[in-house]
């Protein structure tokens, strides 16, 4: 009788370990944030005016749709070691705060689709060493401040597709390295300030096609040419005034002037190669209007904890370069090893009892 009881206990324990234990790995309904639905490892939030709090640790994909929020908090996703994808769909966001998307160790994609963002603060996308895709599609961005993308490495694609951007500040995309592609496609940029791209290394391709650039200050092409990678500008329109005169004076042989690429002046529809710079900008001084001093936006700082602009906590400068130690693999190994050990133990015990 005692042996039978022990067997039943062992079998019950194994059932709890392998069945109920597996269910606990999923995002449960009781953990699901307010105004969100959860299924397996997906968290879907919508129609909210505040960023969801308490995103479950086991979340792998996070969706926020049709929402109006003041900001994405500092370190909003920092303690989600299994998170792989973040998607914003049809959202109106006032600020992507410093370190909103920082140090995310297992991320594959961050996307914004048909959304509006008033400000992207410096360090909003920071120290992302393994992410595959950062994508903006059909969205509107106000200010992309200096260091918005900082220490972003090993990204396959940073894509602005059909996006309207008010101002790209100096050094907005600083220290991009080992990037596959950076693209502005079917975009409108009102002001692309001096050195918006800086310290770019090991980039496979950067392209600007079918876009309209109303003001494009100097410096960006210089850093591109110094890096030696391909900068493909095709079928784009520019406001050809004295602020763009640097393009003819500093880079007269650049491929942008190739007639086959069909780059034109916005108001006259003339191809760039046919523009007489001496006619619309006759003096050397006037041609320097597009090359103002490099004055980046004030660097943003942030804390390592969740905080609020209305109730700020003590701030510390975000590290220039920092790599988190991945814990997800170790957790998985420990979990698997524990199950293996317990399985062997109870199997042997069961065999012993039968004999």
Features:
355 residues, 19% helix, alpha/beta, 24 strands, ten-stranded mixed β-sheet, nine-stranded parallel β-sheet
Description:
By secondary structure, the protein is an alpha/beta fold. 19% of the residues lie in helices and 27% in strands. It is built from five helices and 24 strands. Strands 1-2-3-5-8-11-14-17-20-22 form a ten-stranded mixed sheet, covered by helices on one side. A nine-stranded parallel sheet has the order 4-6-9-12-15-18-21-23-24, with no helix packed on it. Strands 7-10-13-16-19 form a five-stranded parallel sheet. A hairpin with a 2-residue loop joins strand 1 (36-39) and strand 2 (42-46). The chain is elongated. Residues 16-24 and 306-342 have low confidence and may be disordered.
Overall pLDDT metric: 80
Q: What is the H-and-E element order?
A: HEEEEEEEEEEEEEEEEEEEEEHEEHEHH
Q: Radius of gyration, Cα only, in angstroms?
A: 26 Å
Q: DSSP strand (E) fraction? A: 25-35%
Describe the main β-sheet briefly.
10 strands, mixed
The order of strands across the largest sheet is: 1-2-3-5-8-11-14-17-20-22
Basic shape? elongated
Number of strands: 24
Q: Which percent range fits the helix content?
A: 10-25%
Q: Uncertain runs with pLDDT below 50, 5 residues or more?
A: 16-24, 306-342
* End-to-end Cα distance: 15 Å
Classify the secondary structure makeup into a structural class: alpha/beta
* Total of DSSP H or I helical runs spanning 4+ residues: 5
């Amino acid at each position: 009788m005692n042996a039978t009881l022990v067997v039943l206990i062992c079998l019950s324990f194994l059932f709890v370990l392998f069945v109920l234990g597996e269910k606990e790995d999923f995002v449960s309904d009781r953990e699901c944030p307010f105004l969100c639905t959860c299924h397996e490892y997906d968290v879907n939030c919508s129609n909210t005016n505040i960023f969801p709090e308490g995103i479950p640790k086991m979340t792998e994909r996070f969706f926020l749709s049709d929402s109006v929020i003041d900001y994405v908090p500092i370190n909003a996703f920092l303690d989600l070691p299994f998170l792989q994808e973040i998607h914003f769909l049809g959202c109106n966001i006032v600020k992507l705060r410093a370190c909103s998307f920082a140090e995310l160790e297992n991320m594959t994609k961050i996307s914004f689709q048909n959304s509006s963002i008033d400000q992207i603060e410096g360090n909003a996308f920071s120290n992302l060493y393994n992410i595959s895709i950062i994508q903006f599609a059909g969205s509107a961005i106000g200010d992309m401040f200096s260091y918005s993308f900082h220490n972003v490495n090993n990204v396959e694609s940073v894509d602005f597709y059909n996006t309207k951007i008010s101002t790209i500040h100096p050094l907005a995309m600083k220290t991009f390295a080992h990037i596959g592609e950076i693209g502005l496609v079917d975009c409108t940029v009102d002001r692309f300030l001096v050195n918006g791209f800086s310290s770019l290394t090991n980039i496979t391709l950067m392209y600007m096609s079918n876009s309209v650039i109303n003001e494009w200050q100097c410096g960006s092409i210089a850093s591109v040419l110094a890096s030696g990678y391909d900068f493909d500008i095709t079928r784009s329109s520019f406001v050809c005034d004295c602020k763009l005169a640097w393009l003819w004076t500093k880079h007269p042989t650049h491929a942008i002037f190739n007639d086959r690429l069909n780059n034109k002046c916005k108001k006259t529809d003339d191809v760039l190669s046919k523009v007489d710079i001496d006619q619309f900008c006759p003096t050397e001084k006037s041609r320097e209007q597009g090359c103002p001093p490099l004055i980046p936006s004030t660097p943003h700082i942030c804390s390592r904890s969740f905080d609020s602009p209305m109730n700020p906590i003590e701030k510390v400068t975000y590290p220039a370069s920092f790599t988190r130690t991945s814990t997800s693999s170790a957790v998985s190994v420990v979990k698997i090893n524990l199950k293996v050990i317990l399985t062997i133990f109870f199997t042997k015990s069961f065999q012993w009892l039968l004999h």
